[in-house]
From TrEMBL:
Family: Belongs to the class-II aminoacyl-tRNA synthetase family.
Name by which UniProt lists this protein: Lysine--tRNA ligase
Species this chain originates from: Hordeum vulgare subsp. vulgare (Domesticated barley)
Family annotation (InterPro entries): Aa-tRNA-synt_II, aa-tRNA-synth_II, aa-tRNA-synth_II/BPL/LPL, Lys-tRNA-ligase_II, Lys-tRNA-ligase_II_N, Lys-tRNA-synth_II_C, NA-bd_OB-fold, NA-bd_OB_tRNA
UniProt entry keywords in alphabetical sequence: Aminoacyl-tRNA synthetase, ATP-binding, Ligase, Metal-binding, Nucleotide-binding, Protein biosynthesis
Length: 582
């Protein structure tokens, strides 16, 4: 591709440009020393002797080069303004994107010029090379790239000199002219006028190596997107996913609503919340950990099909699967049960896959995932029994279940996993611990895990056939939970009792952790250090009567991970939360 050859030729000018810069700095009072052509970030000028530069660390050398380039480009900005040109434009009227030009004029023969075409484009310069009276540049916009063919005869003398002296790789340029295809078959805009729209002051990463520092990619996503254009494709796909979800929900008669981010009580899930303080009200508020309880209030109020796409905030760990703020869709439908939500989950994921990939068999990190129906549906008890050979329905007390789990999981007495197991207050909790440890990671193909224990499902309706279970499912793909749904609990007395038991269990775990910390005389895990309280207003709303209903939450970030073959959740969130830089 000519763009790569352009960059290679530009990089070969490094030694020449650096020597020119040094000579210019040494010549006191020379007015035009900024007329150095900075064709690549490596072409930064420096007045330090080579031996001094070698003594500096790579980091300080990089910073010095960056500062030198910035100083040169700032002088170019001053010079342009002195000549009456504003290097930060208000607008540019463009007629086409680069992709539109590539598609419309692909039929041209090599060497053919389409003089009747009058086109105007804009974008960032990503490559540049000059040969006397001819300058080639590659420009990139949101849709792709195209070459600019700049010949001295087609520009004014002033413009051609400006092109050579003031324009650098990384600048944003507007250009107009006709269309030609070079003898080598490169479609180009035959430029007769151009304008600097934005003068770039800082150099972008090296063209060939790109931005490879993973931490810097996440911290400076804008550079990541410029240096690695495929990153922007992930966010285009994310936008399509969200759009397709909305289309699907609307096609089934759901309406989108908005509920508070700041809440008086953190409810709808068991998770550590972020706490803030409202000065005027003189009260603490919580960033929501779920949208569930307010959406259910909408059902009480008479809306029968509602959903919300929104940010959720949980003050918990960071990993390739978890970010403290993430995006979900939660939906609730009156007069339906969790079977309805399984069908809707399949519909949403399949439509999103077709909209973004065009197929139902996709590759995820080297494994083929089939999204074709029917998806497997199996109970939690059955999956655990298949994996371990143990039927947890046979245990009449929690201690027997714990002892069996210890043997299955091989926990050491003092391990953190064993502490978590010991904190389990029921057979249902132990079953869930074994499921999460042994089974979860094996659920590679789409699987609905059904009928969770009542102890770990405080918002789900009791199972209509099996005592001690609830009508709840979680959807797993690639060993990750994608969705969670239930037939909703509508009995206000049962709901209050469940919440109160949940608070007791939380406080018991909190006390156990505190006791362990005191005995170890060390800093403990603060997983349960927060307080849980009842949402009295939600309980009151249930007493006015909520219709039979089902509800589901789907993790949009994890769905986008699946559809873009992204290994980390940070790859699909434009600006993820990161640790402070040291």
């Amino acid at each position: 591709m000519e763009a790569l050859r352009v960059w290679r030729a530009s990089s070969n000018l490094l030694g020449f440009a650096a020597s020119r810069a040094a000579a210019a700095a040494a010549s006191a009072g020379r007015a035009h020393r900024f007329h150095i052509r900075c064709c690549s970030p490596a072409a930064a000028a420096t007045t330090k002797p080579p031996q001094d530069r070698r003594r500096r660390s790579a980091s300080s050398s990089s910073t010095s080069d960056r500062d030198s380039i910035r100083a040169i480009r700032l002088k170019k900005v001053e010079e342009l303004r002195g000549m009456g040109y504003e290097p930060y434009a208000y607008k540019w009227d463009r007629t086409h994107t680069t992709k539109e030009l590539q598609e419309r004029y692909t039929h041209l023969e090599d060497g053919e010029v389409c003089t009747e075409a009058a086109v105007s484009i804009a974008g960032r310069i990503v490559a540049r090379r000059a040969f006397g009276k001819l300058v080639f540049m590659t420009i990139r916009d949101d849709s792709g790239t195209i070459q600019l063919y700049c010949e001295k005869e087609s520009l004014t003398e002033e413009q051609f000199e400006q092109l050579k002296a003031f324009i650098d790789v990384d600048d944003i340029l507007g250009a107009s002219g006709s269309i030609k295809k070079t003898e080598k078959g490169e479609l180009s805009v035959y430029v007769n006028f151009f304008e600097i729209l934005t003068k770039s002051l800082l150099p972008l990463p090296d063209k060939y190596h790109g931005l490879t520092d993973v931490d810097k990619r996440y911290r400076q996503r804008y550079i990541d997107m410029i240096a690695n254009p495929e990153v922007a494709d992930v966010f285009r796909t994310r936008s399509k996913v969200v759009s397709e979800i909305r289309k699907t929900m609307e096609s089934f008669g759901f309406i989108e609503v908005e509920t508070p981010v700041l809440q008086g009580a953190a409810g709808g899930a068991e998770a550590r919340p972020f706490i803030t303080h409202h000065n005027s009200l003189q009260r603490d508020l919580y960033l929501r950990i779920a949208t569930e309880l307010h959406l259910k209030r909408m059902l009480v109020g008479g809306l029968e099909k509602v959903y919300e796409i929104g940010r959720i905030f949980r003050n918990e760990g960071i990993s390739t699967r978890h970010n403290p703020e993430f995006t979900t869709i939660e939906m609730y439908e009156a007069y339906s049960d969790y079977e309805s939500m399984m069908n809707l989950a399949e519909e949403i994921v399949i439509r999103c896959a077709m909209a973004t990939t065009g197929k139902l068999k996709i590759d995820y990190q080297g494994t083929e995932i089939s999204l074709e129906r029917p998806w497997r549906r199996e109970t939690m008890h059955r999956l655990v029994e298949e994996a371990t050979g143990v039927d947890f329905n046979s245990f009449g007390d929690v201690e027997s279940a714990k002892n069996a789990a210890k043997g299955l999981l091989g926990f050491k007495t003092e391990s953190s996993e064993n502490t978590s197991l010991q904190a389990c207050s029921s057979v249902g909790h132990v079953l869930n611990e074994v499921f999460e440890t042994v089974v979860e990671s094996t659920l590679v193909q789409p699987t609905f895990v059904l009928d969770y224990p009542v102890e770990i499902s405080p918002l789900a309706k009791p199972h209509r056939r099996y005592a001690g279970l609830t009508e709840r499912f979680e959807l797993f793909v690639c060993g990750r939970e994608i969705g969670n749904a239930f037939s909703e609990l509508t009995d206000p007395i049962d709901q209050r009792n469940r919440f109160e038991n949940q608070i007791k269990q939380h406080n018991a775990k909190r006390a156990a952790m505190d006791k362990k910390v005191k005995s170890d005389e060390s800093k403990g895990d603060d997983e349960y250090s927060y307080e849980v309280s009842l949402d009295e207003d939600f309980l009151t709303s249930l007493e006015y009567g909520m219709p039979p209903a089902s509800g589901m939450g789907l993790g949009i970030d994890r769905l986008v991970m699946l559809l873009t073959n992204s290994a980390s959740i940070r790859d699909v969130i434009a600006f993820p939360v990161l640790k402070l830089q040291q």
